[in-house]
Amino acid sequence: MSDIRIATPEDQILLDKEAKYCSYGDTVHYIEPPRIFSRCEGSYVWDTEDQAYLDLQMWYSAVNFGYANPRLNNALKQQIDTLPQIASQYLHKGKIELSEMIAVDAKKKFGLDGRVHFNVGGSQSIEDSLKVVRNATNGKSLMFAFEGGYHGRTLGASSITSSYRYRRRYGHFGERAQFIPFPYHFRGPKGMTKEEYGSHCVQQFARLFETEYNGVWDPKVGQSEYAAFYVEPIQGTGGYVIPPMNFYRELKQVLDQHGILMVSDEIQMGFYRTGKLWSIEHFDVQPDVIVFGKALTNGLNPLGGIWAREELINPKIFPPGSTHSTFASNPLGTAVGLEMFKMTSEVDYGAMVMAKGKYFLEGLQDLQKRFPIIGDVDGLGLALRCEICGPDGFTPDKATLDYMVEEGMKGDMVVDGQKLGLILDVGGYYKNVITLAPSLEISYPEIDLGLKLLEQLLVRATKR
């Protein structure tokens, strides 16, 4: 095991400048000293010393299709030479065709007419969805959201994100959320199956509507004070928690009975991360609004947006100028988005992702059998989780996972004579979950390599 890594003189000069000139508000320093990266390709990034790291989180699922994907990069390059920019109040072909592609797909899958509205990223698109929801519900500003849910750090988005630390310094700005327990079966009551626990959580939520004195429902007029329920079908920052398959179907019945909209946040799980274009497709429900971002452009360009039902977003109810961003529906982003849809239509990404995910999950399950500190593993497609616990296999152990992350970033592990680092992401309610989001293009040998590197980290962790 190596000692603490020291920054090179060249990197230290840059780090000293960062300490003086850069806001730390847009940066998270998970390790010290922070790495400075110089290039990337496929499932790998290289630092300034040309040390390779296998990346199993792919920029929080923004780079679903691999770093420097040649086809998507070329789409961006070609657009730069034709129409690289145009003010968002003007039309261009890419915006219209990409909107059509998303809306036609939603009609096919959900049987609903709808429209697409663009913005520059996930949090900004959450803000737009809040406008759509409030406008459609006569200005209601109260929302339901889940414990463990994450929807962004702008003022509106942080108000419906369950972590108080994102609001503590800034307070609320309009929206407020009531946070509802998510069916996190591994940490749920003992003696229930996963499906029974899902139904139990829905029943506890439905109880809020039994009487006016539970604070959310006026039975005399049949109206709720709450406008929408914001859901991540599979929790992202919360630790890639996968609910039982009956959960959203039962939850949506309660919402529909009480006139409450369902907004599906697909920012992290969209674009085939779970083997479907949208992760909500696994659960046999019709969302009222879908919010997307990140992997739409494979991280090459900031572009996000929403799809909403026609009744919520048609020009009569949501007229021109309802929201605006200078860079919304920018031609570079829409060109990459269109190429992404063309690329995924030519190959059965759903089958490919599910097969790779099954293979990866089996490898994690094998590690779980051999390392008692792995309390839980689960996965849907290539959204996988590995919960690190104490020797009892249940008590959350954040310190051990922090150690593993730091060890992975030393870049000193050796597999088949190759020196490598491993990039992991930390999530979970207790920050003790490895949230694995590898490239959808990851090869089976690279999955094997990732499992071998994880095994080395687990060995180090148990021997320290």
UniProtKB/TrEMBL annotation:
CDD domains xrefs: OAT_like (cd00610)
Q: Which UniProt keywords apply?
A: Aminotransferase, Pyridoxal phosphate, Transferase
Query: Where does the source fall among the domains of life?
Result: Bacteria
> Is Transferase tagged as a keyword?
yes
The protein's required cofactor(s) are namely: pyridoxal 5'-phosphate
Keyword Lyase recorded: no
Which InterPro entries does the entry mention?
A: Aminotrans_3, Aminotrans_3_PPA_site, Class-III_PLP-dep_AT, PyrdxlP-dep_Trfase, PyrdxlP-dep_Trfase_major, PyrdxlP-dep_Trfase_small
Which Pfam families does the annotation name?
Aminotran_3
Q: Which family does the entry's similarity section mention?
A: Belongs to the class-III pyridoxal-phosphate-dependent aminotransferase family.
Protein name (database record): Aminotransferase class III-fold pyridoxal phosphate-dependent enzyme
